[in-house]
Design goal:
By secondary structure, the chain is α+β, with helices and mostly antiparallel strands. It has 5 domains: 7-219, PAS domain (Beta-Lactamase), CATH 3.30.450.20; 225-324, Beta-Lactamase, CATH 3.30.450; 344-434, 2-Layer Sandwich (Beta-Lactamase); 436-516, Helix Hairpins, CATH 1.10.287; 520-685, Heat Shock Protein 90, CATH 3.30.565.10. It has helices at residues 7-27, 38-52, 90-95, 109-116, 161-169, 174-200, 205-222, 241-247, 251-254, 320-343, 361-367, 375-380, 390-397, 437-482, 490-516, 530-539, 542-548, 567-588, 649-659, and strands at residues 57-61, 65-69, 88-89, 120-127, 133-144, 150-159, 226-231, 236-239, 278-286, 292-303, 309-318, 346-350, 356-359, 401-408, 411-421, 427-435, 551-555, 597-607, 610-619, 663-669, 673-681. The strands form 4 sheets. Strands 3-2-1-6-5-4 form a 6-stranded antiparallel beta sheet, sandwiched between helices. A 5-stranded antiparallel beta sheet has the order 8-7-11-10-9. It has a 5-stranded antiparallel beta sheet with strand order 13-12-16-15-14. The termini are far apart.
C-alpha cells in the first residue's frame, strides 16, 4: 500500500514546480528566452487542447482527492466546482455525492487500480428522474512517483449510453460490436499510458512540454474518432488519420483549404443560433470519391488563453452502415406490415407468459393499446389463465389450432393460433382474429328468412281455414236476424255478432293480403292517411285497454301529410307496438292506476334529409334493462315469458320501416318507461 501521507503531496508539488518554471521562463530576458520562448505557448496549447477535449480527464490521488481535471470533468455531475478552492473528492466532482462509490454499492475505480496495481475500467450508471439512465465508462491508469510507489490514477470518462443501447438492440452483430469496443478500450488504454508517461517525465520543463506536444499529436492521430480543427475562417488547421481514412482526403489535400470541401451544409459551429457544444449531431458529408456518408458529429470552440475564440474542433464517426442496416430493417418491417394490413385481419403475438408483445393496427382499433397485457384478460376478461389454454397447447404441440369465436364490443371474431420461434430463441404464438360479424349476421338473416317464410305460409293456411267458418257464422247470424221482428231484443246481439264476425273476416283478409304481398304492391296504393291506420290499429285493442285500465293519450295534429306506403304493413307495425306497450303496462301495474299511461304523438319535422313524419309510442311500464336494450331488434329475442311472444315483432317492424326508407329507434329506462320512435319520409317514390 503506497504512503498516502506523502505521495499525493509530491504529485501536487510537481505540478506547482511546472507552473513556477513557466513563470520564470516568462521573466527571462529575450536573449535567455530564444531557445525556450516556445515552451509556455506549447504548454498552453497542450493545456488548452486537454481542456477542450469532449471526454473528461481527471487525476486523482490515493485519498480520493482530485488533483487535476479538464473542463469536461467539471460538467459531469451538473454542479459547478470549477472555481472552488481546495481539493474536491472525486465522488463529489463526478457524481455530486458526499459518499464514496463503495459506500453506495458502486465499484470504485481508484480502489480497483490500487488493488490490481494496473489500469482498470468500470461502468457507472446514473439514473435520471424520467426513468432513463446515463452510463459512463471510466478508465483509470496508475500513476507512480519517482520511488515507484502509486501516487494516484489518471482517469478518462466517456458517455457510452448510446453504445450500450446499440449493443443491446443489435445482438446479432455482437461480435462486430465487441470488436469495436475492444479496439476503443485498447486505444483508451494507450491514451492513459501516454498520459501516465507524461506525468512521470515532468521533471524538466523543456522535456515535459516537448513530450506533451508529441503525445498530444500521437493521441490526435491515433484517436478512434475522426478529428480536425479549423480557424475562425473555417480553414483546416489540422487533420488526423481517422478523418483521412473516412473522407479520403489526405492532409496535403485538405491543408490550407476550407472545410466545406467535404461538407456543403451551413457551418453549425460558427453559427450564433446553435448552442455549443454540439453533441452527436447527425448530418452527411461527401468523400473525395463522391460517396455520401452519414456521420454523428460533435464540435466546440477552440479558445486562446484569454478565452477568445480562435477556431473550432470537430470529431465525428461514420454511421453509414448502421443507417443502411436500419433502412433495410425498416423496409422489411414495412413489407411485413403491408402484407398484414392487406389481409385485414387482427394480429397478436403472445409469449409463454400470456403477454401480448405485438399488435397490428386492426386490433389496436378494436382493443386499444394492449402491449404487455395478459391475453386472458383482453380476450375473456379473466383474472387468471383460461383452462386448457390454446396458446400453450399450440406451443407444446407445435401445430396450428382454431379456437371458438369470441365476442368483443358486439363484434364476433374467429381465432387461429400458430406457433413460431422468435429471434430471442423463444417459441411464441401468433394469434389471428378475423371479423366474422357480417357472416354470422348473414347466417342469422338466412335462418330468419326461412323461419319467416314458414310462419307466413302457416299463417296464410290458418287464415284461409278460418275464413270459411267465419263467413258461415256471419251468414247464419244474418238468417236468424232476418227471421226475427225488428223489436226483438236478440237483434242487438245478432247485429253485434255479425259486426264482430265481419271484423274477424276483415282481419283474416288482411292477413291473407299480407301473406300474398310483393315488393311492387306499394305501387298500387295512393297516399294513405296515417291517422286512419292508427285508428284501425287502436280499435283492435280498445276493448282490452278498457278492461286493463290503460289510459291512452293520442296527439294527432291537423296537417300531417299522407304517405305512399303499404297501409297493412304499417298497421302491422302499429299493432305490434300497441301489444308490447299493453304487456309492459300490465307487467308494472296489475290493475287500474293513474300512472298506467300510453302516449302516442305524431308530428312533422324538418331535417337535413327533408321532411319527416315522426310517430312516438311511450308507455310508462316496466321498461328494458340497459344490458339487453341493444338486442331487442334481434330476431327471436324476447323479454316475455315462453309462450307469450315469438321475439319477431320488433325485428319484422324494423324491416317494414326500413323498406319504407324510414327509421325506427327505441330508448328505455328500466322501471320507468319505453319510447319507440318511427320516422317516415314524406316524399316516397
Amino acid at each position: 500500500m503506497p504512503d498516502t501521507d506523502t505521495t499525493p503531496k509530491e504529485l501536487l508539488d510537481e505540478i506547482t514546480r511546472l507552473k513556477s518554471h513557466i513563470a520564470q521562463l516568462e521573466r527571462k530576458t529575450p536573449a535567455d528566452q530564444d531557445d525556450q520562448a516556445d515552451w509556455p505557448r506549447k504548454y498552453r496549447f497542450f493545456e488548452s487542447f486537454i481542456n477542450e477535449l469532449v471526454e473528461p480527464l481527471i487525476v486523482i490521488d490515493t485519498n480520493y482527492k482530485v488533483k487535476y481535471a479538464n473542463k469536461a470533468a467539471y460538467q459531469i455531475s451538473g454542479e459547478s466546482f470549477f472555481d472552488k478552492e481546495g481539493d474536491i473528492p472525486c465522488h463529489k466532482l463526478l457524481f455530486n455525492s458526499d459518499r464514496k462509490c463503495a459506500e453506495r454499492g458502486q465499484n470504485c475505480l481508484l480502489e480497483k487500480v490500487i488493488q490490481d496495481g494496473r489500469h482498470a475500467t468500470i461502468d457507472y450508471t446514473i439514473p435520471l428522474a424520467n426513468g432513463q439512465e446515463i452510463i459512463y465508462e471510466i478508465l483509470g491508469s496508475p500513476i507512480c512517483g519517482p520511488d515507484g510507489n502509486l501516487v494516484g490514477i489518471v482517469s478518462t470518462i466517456r458517455d457510452v449510453t448510446q453504445q450500450r443501447y446499440e449493443q443491446k438492440m443489435l445482438e446479432n452483430d455482437h461480435d462486430f460490436l465487441e470488436m469495436r469496443v475492444q479496439e476503443k478500450m485498447s486505444e483508451l488504454i494507450d491514451l492513459n499510458q501516454a498520459l501516465r508517461q507524461e506525468i512521470k517525465q515532468r521533471q524538466e520543463t523543456e522535456q515535459k512540454l516537448r513530450w506533451a506536444k508529441e503525445q498530444a499529436e500521437l493521441l490526435y492521430q491515433l484517436s478512434p474518432c475522426a478529428i480536425f480543427t479549423v480557424d475562425s475562417d473555417r480553414y483546416v488547421t489540422s487533420w488526423n488519420k481517422k478523418t483521412e481514412e473516412i473522407t479520403g482526403y489526405s492532409h496535403d489535400d485538405i491543408k490550407g483549404r476550407k472545410c466545406f470541401i467535404f461538407c456543403s451544409q451551413p457551418c453549425m459551429l460558427l453559427s450564433d443560433e446553435i448552442e455549443k457544444p454540439i453533441i452527436r449531431h447527425e448530418c452527411t458529408l461527401r468523400t473525395k470519391d463522391g460517396r455520401k456518408l452519414y456521420i454523428l458529429k460533435s464540435s466546440d470552440f477552440l479558445r486562446d488563453p484569454n478565452g477568445k475564440v480562435i477556431g473550432g474542433i470537430e470529431s465525428f464517426e461514420d454511421i453509414t452502415q448502421l443507417k443502411q442496416m436500419d433502412m433495410m430493417l425498416r423496409t422489411e418491417r414495412d413489407k411485413i406490415q403491408g402484407m398484414i394490413a392487406a389481409t385485414k385481419q387482427g394480429l397478436h403475438i403472445l409469449n409463454s407468459n400470456y403477454e401480448i408483445e405485438f399488435q397490428n393496427d386492426v386490433l389496436k382499433n378494436i382493443f386499444g393499446d394492449q402491449i404487455g397485457a395478459k391475453c386472458y384478460h383482453v380476450y375473456k376478461q379473466r383474472d387468471e389463465p383460461c383452462p386448457n389454454c390454446r396458446m400453450h397447447n399450440v406451443i407444446k404441440n407445435n401445430q396450428i389450432e382454431h379456437a371458438d369465436d369470441i365476442t368483443f364490443q358486439g363484434r364476433h371474431y374467429s381465432q387461429s393460433y400458430a406457433p413460431f420461434k422468435d429471434t430471442d430463441g423463444q417459441t411464441k404464438c401468433l394469434v389471428l382474429l378475423r371479423d366474422i360479424t357480417v357472416e354470422k349476421a348473414n347466417r342469422v338473416k338466412t335462418l330468419r328468412t326461412a323461419q319467416l317464410a314458414s310462419i307466413g305460409e302457416l299463417a296464410a293456411g290458418v287464415a284461409h281455414e278460418i275464413n270459411n267458418p267465419i263467413n258461415g257464422i256471419i251468414n247464419y247470424a244474418q238468417l236468424i236476424m232476418d227471421d226475427t221482428v225488428p223489436t226483438d231484443p236478440r237483434n242487438i246481439l245478432l247485429a253485434r255478432l255479425i259486426s264482430e264476425g265481419e271484423r274477424v273476416a276483415d282481419i283474416v283478409s288482411k292477413l291473407l293480403a299480407f301473406a300474398r304481398q310483393r315488393e311492387d304492391e306499394k305501387e298500387a296504393y295512393g297516399k294513405i292517411d296515417i291517422k286512419n291506420v292508427l285508428e284501425d290499429s287502436f280499435s283492435l285493442f280498445e276493448h282490452q285497454f278498457l278492461k286493463d285500465g290503460i289510459i291512452t293519450r293520442i296527439h294527432f295534429p291537423e296537417g300531417i301529410p299522407g304517405l305512399r306506403i303499404h297501409p297493412h304493413q304499417l298497421q302491422q307495425v302499429f299493432v305490434n307496438l300497441l301489444s308490447n306497450a299493453r304487456h309492459a303496462l300490465n307487467g308494472r301495474y296489475k290493475g287500474a292506476n293513474p300512472n298506467k299511461i300510453l302516449e302516442i304523438k305524431t308530428s312533422q319535422v324538418q331535417t337535413e334529409k327533408g321532411s319527416l313524419v315522426k310517430i312516438t309510442f311511450t308507455d310508462h311500464g316496466t321498461g328494458i334493462d340497459k344490458e339487453i336494450i341493444n338486442m331487442v331488434f334481434n330476431p327471436f329475442f324476447s323479454t316475455k315469458k315462453p309462450g307469450e311472444g315469438t321475439g319477431l315483432g320488433l325485428s319484422i317492424s324494423q324491416s317494414i320501416i326500413q323498406s319504407f326508407q324510414g327509421q325506427i329507434s327505441l330508448e328505455s329506462e328500466a322501471g320507468e318507461y319505453t319510447r319507440v320512435t318511427i320516422e317516415l319520409p314524406v316524399q316516397m317514390e
